[in-house]
Write a structure and sequence with these properties.
Blueprint lengths: L2 H25 L2 H33 L1
Helix pairs in contact: 1-2
Length: about 60
């Protein structure tokens, strides 16, 4: 995946995870809350990966 697609996927996963967590909270579904938290963390990792790829590209471009 490219840095932009990592960042977009990351943002989407973070948003979906937060929605799942909220739905789990409202319904009292602990599994849905846990799934949402996991998806949110996955999104944060994807976003960080995209940022790291951008930073690495910047370093290479400056050489």
């Amino acid at each position: 995946m490219g840095s932009t697609s990592d960042r977009v996927s990351g943002a989407a996963n973070q948003a979906a995870g937060k929605i799942k967590q909220a739905a789990g909270e409202v319904t009292g579904n602990d599994r849905l809350k846990a799934d949402g938290k996991g998806q949110e963390i996955k999104g944060k990792v994807q976003s960080a990966s995209g940022k790291a790829k951008d930073a690495a590209k910047d370093v290479v471009d400056r050489m």
